[in-house]
Write a structure and sequence with these properties.
289 residues, 14 helices, mainly alpha
């Protein structure tokens, strides 16, 4: 069997009907979650036209069985109505004014972190309940879901944030990043024990390094986190960003190092070197993103 025939057979086994169009039947009577995980990870980002639908299956928003999808959709419509009604009472801003803050605030209402008090919450003026890292993350996830209706965007964001809170133990990820760095540069790793350096790196992990990644790599990182439900890829990305960045001065004092990492990871232009990390963490992503 030639390499071309082998690849065609392999793609067919994943539910991909054509090598050129790479069509996945997301309307089948039963969805094989393992197959769509593989499809999500092997399909180049620029050809992944059904990312949102796949996320909905993997996040358990859309049931794998067609027979119960209509009933589930009715339940989601009902739930959406309740959350929106609560939002009208609790929030001082609507989705027309600020979609990012609105959807994140809906998540806080849904999880009981934001409730009705004497005055409506002004979520655009530094409300203490809002987490800036989560808001930044939500903002960039929305960019990947622009084709969806507001309700569909919300349930995906809600489930992603719940998933992250369960798999992304930020302190643990930071410790693993520092441990990996110490294997290459022990003197640099020692400076990461500074409280300020750890805080900056932790905040970067909480945003999934969104400011330091090309948009295609951020999308691929989200695919990996959702498909694998494992935050280990954040470790690889964090190490790559820190070790391959020329802005960071190995001789800096911890306080200066914190500022350098902050400007590098949270402000700077995307690092193309991160693509190499995705060659290792995501199957067949090399040169396709």
């Amino acid at each position: 069997m030639s390499e071309k025939d082998y690849r065609a057979t392999y793609l067919t086994s994943l539910g991909i009907q054509s090598r050129k169009t790479e069509i996945l039947d997301i309307h089948a009577d039963e969805i094989d979650l393992d197959k769509i995980k593989h499809y999500l990870l092997v399909t180049p980002s620029n050809k992944l036209n059904n990312r949102a639908q796949i996320w909905q299956f993997l996040l358990r928003i859309t049931p794998r069985y067609k027979t119960v999808r209509l009933h589930t959709q009715e339940q989601l419509d009902e739930q959406w109505s309740v959350i929106e009604n609560a939002a009208r009472l609790i929030l001082s801003v609507s989705s027309d004014h600020d979609t990012t803050h609105y959807l994140y605030a809906l998540h806080l209402i849904h999880t009981g972190q934001l409730s009705l008090m004497n005055d409506k919450h002004d979520i655009t003026c530094g409300n203490q309940v809002l987490d800036k890292c989560s808001v930044l993350l939500v903002k960039n996830i929305i960019l990947l879901l622009e084709s969806l209706k507001l309700k569909e965007q919300y349930f995906i964001i809600h489930e992603i944030l719940l998933l992250f809170s369960s798999i992304n133990k930020y302190d643990v990820v930071v410790e693993k990043i520092v441990s990996k760095i110490s294997q290459t540069d022990s003197s640099l790793a020692k400076k990461f024990h500074s409280t300020e350096v750890k805080r900056v790196l932790c905040n970067s992990v909480r945003t999934c390094f969104v400011k330091a990644l090309p948009s295609c790599c951020f999308g691929r990182l989200m695919d990996t986190l959702i498909a694998k439900r494992d935050a280990s890829c954040l470790v690889s990305v964090g190490v790559e960003i820190v070790m391959k960045n020329s802005v960071i001065n190995r001789n800096s004092a911890p306080a200066d190092l914190a500022e350098e990492i902050k400007s590098t990871i949270l402000v700077t232009q995307p690092h193309q070197s991160c693509r190499r990390t995705f060659d290792k963490t995501v199957p067949n992503s090399k040169a396709e993103n």
